[in-house]
Design goal:
two-stranded antiparallel sheet; globular; 4 helices; four-stranded antiparallel sheet; alpha+beta
């Protein structure tokens, strides 16, 4: 999670969204405030921690950015992100995310495929009790043991 931003000064607010991650989300047609997500994560905001966040592209519904912030058993604040994208954005997003991963301070695993069980499980509403997909189809859905919107 610490690689999601770049610090440019000594102050607590002297950081900006990592340009490659920001570029990837913009290519997907998403408006994600990465700075706020980062700040909320490290401040222990319960609306952020413990959830899986699913962001849908505004212009291309098939472009999806998934951020899994459910608790792990590590001390490195490792989070998982997954992207599903249309052919129109695939090459640009692939380059941006691969470059982001290669620049990470603690690169753990990078994986590309046409589909994985991990991503299918993240997107399976049945994994999250209380979720009503028809009612909760905004740009961002938050899931946890029970749904938070």
């Amino acid at each position: 999670m610490s690689d999601f931003v770049i610090y440019f000064g000594e102050g607590d607010d002297d950081f900006l969204a990592h340009p490659l991650l920001d570029a990837a989300t913009r290519t997907l047609g998403l408006r994600i405030d990465i700075r706020k997500l980062y700040d909320d994560y490290f401040c222990g905001d319960e609306d952020v921690l413990g959830h899986t966040h699913v962001f849908h592209g505004l212009s291309r519904e098939k472009d999806i950015f998934v951020l899994d912030l459910r608790p792990g058993d590590d001390q490195l604040d490792i989070v998982h992100l997954a992207v599903i994208c249309s052919p129109a954005t695939r090459d640009a997003v692939r380059y941006q995310l691969r470059s982001f991963f290669d620049a990470a301070s603690c690169p753990i695993s990078y994986h590309e495929s046409h589909g994985t069980a991990y991503v299918r499980n993240l997107l399976d509403a049945n994994q999250y009790p209380g979720h009503d997909y028809a009612r909760n189809r905004p740009q961002e859905l938050k899931y946890a043991a029970s749904l938070s919107v």
